[in-house]
Amino acid sequence: MTKKDAVRHAHVVEGKKLLEQWGIRLARLQDQSVTVAMVQEHIGKNPAADVALAALLGNYPTPEVEHVLVAWEGKTSDKELRHEIRRSLYKLSQKGLTTKRAEPAPAPAIFAPLEPEGYLSPIDGRGDRLLWLVKAKAGGGLHYLSAVVNEPEGLRYFDFAEINRKKLRQMRQDFTTRMQMVLVEAPWRYCDAVMYEGYERVKGKEDKEADAYLAFRTHLLSAPAQPVEVPLPASLETAAIAADETLLQTSAPLLQEPELQLWMLDHERAHHYTDKISQVQESPLILNRLQQQDRLQTVIDSAIIEIFAGEPGMAYARRLEETALYLTATDRGEAAKRALAVSLALKRSAQGGKGIPFCEELVRQSIALHYHEEKQHAQEESRGSLIMRPSEFAARMQAAQAQRRGVR
Fold it and tell me: Nearest CA to 300 among 370, 397, 400?
């Protein structure tokens, strides 16, 4: 008898004595004066008794015993006891009982490839957002690929470096401190797809350095990038949000979110409309205030339609969809739903931003801001100039005539 068998035999003998004291014998199981449920109550009371009990149950072939042994095997960490349970399960299978045991979980592969990590900033008013891809490299440290991608113009900037985890945390913190915004974790496949799509939009143009992006990417990924839709979380159910008119009608306050306060139109885009407004206000052909207000509203309406129509409108729709993802990641669920509601409305609109409160308010605020800035700049210039424009001369003449009529 081997030493291992001798130890088992000693445990079984010792355990049988305890089973006898508890009134547990095979004969009593067979005549059902002791039930399997009663036997289960003694499991775990003594290690030697457990081994003897497992051996005993192997001689009582019933489905109930099989179920007890299978469950017991999954719970115990004692190697000797588990071996005895398996010995008894084998006996039961020899007597016609098919043992149904859970499949063991596959062991993790030792050299399983590590998934990259993705990070995403909010989109600014120009349509730029910052994306990071990070992946552990062999020998320690991280490969870091960063890119600024504009929607819709494409890749504006990229950078590659080898850093460590501490440096990554510091860079994220620096971004938050400097920009007063956070880089949120995002699905890496989406970050990779946006970067690659940005590269596709600029390759072959004047920026010859853009091709270096592909070389840097190979340090992290070898498979080609695949197009990926904005990975909206389950909390943003598209059909329900599209059907909820309240979300769209209350979308204007989105402009109060810190990230969207930067979405005002730039001077170049707004000037086309501020110039028209100036022409309306200075025109001698408009006789009364009502006519003037009507003409001004026509200018605003055309801006709302034109700015959000066609390809620019689709670019805004994607920006807002991605903004919904970002707002969700920063625990602003209701704002995220409104951003997605605006995105969906733009996709189905035939009149640009008309009837979409967020778009209408964005245009009004932008035009008002640039109009007042232009007027202030013009006034500052006129103070230092002896030359009077025709419109200024006409305005002063009208004011003088009105004053003389008042004196008479």
Answer: 370
Which pLDDT band, with edges at 50, 70 and 90, does 332 fall under? very high
Angle at 119 (CA atoms; ends 113, 122), nearest 5 degrees: 160
Q: Within the chain, how many helices (H) and strands (E) appear? A: 17, 5
Q: What is the mean pLDDT of residues 116-132?
A: 96
Cβ neighbours, 10 Å, residue 245: 10
Q: Which two tokens stand for residue 38?
A: 């009663």
What is the token pair recorded at 89? 């399960």
Query: Tokens in use for 11?
Result: 């445990």
Q: What is the pLDDT of residue 380?
A: 74
In the block, tokens 């946006």 appear at 194
E strand spans, 218-258? none
| Mean pLDDT for all residues in the chain | 87
Report the residue count for the chain. 408
Q: Are 78 and 51 in contact (CB under 8 A)?
A: no
Angstrom distance (rounded) from CA 132 to CA 252:
31
Nearest to 343 by CA among 247, 233, 201, 226: 247
Residue 148 CB burial class (10 angstroms; 0-12, 13-18, ≥19): middle
Q: How far apart are CA 261 and CA 302, in angstroms?
A: 23
Query: Are 348 and 239 contacting, i.e. CB atoms less than 8 angstroms apart?
Result: no
Report CA-CA distances (Å) from 16 to 50, 56, 68, 105, 306.
Answer: 10, 9, 19, 35, 91
- β-partners of residue 157 are 148
Q: Which residue has the higher pLDDT, 96 or 173?
A: 173
CA distance linking residue 346 with residue 232, whole number of Å: 17
Q: Taking Cα atoms as reference points, which of 246, 234, 229 lies closest to residue 341?
A: 246
pLDDT in tens, 102-115: 555 565 555 556 89
**Residue given tokens 């989406």 in the structure block:** 190
Please enumerate in sequence order all residues whose Cβ is within 8 A of that of 366, keeping only pairs 6 or more positions apart, or say none.
264, 265, 269, 270
pTM over 0.70: no
**Cα–chain center distance at 73:** 42
Which among 101, 57, 100, 54 has a CA at the least distance from the CA of 80?
A: 54
User: What pLDDT score does 118 carry?
Assistant: 97
Over residues 95-100, the mean pLDDT reads 72
From residue 192, alpha-carbon distances to 4, 171, 200 in Å are: 58, 20, 12
- Helices 289-307 and 357-383 meet at what angle, rounded to 10? 120
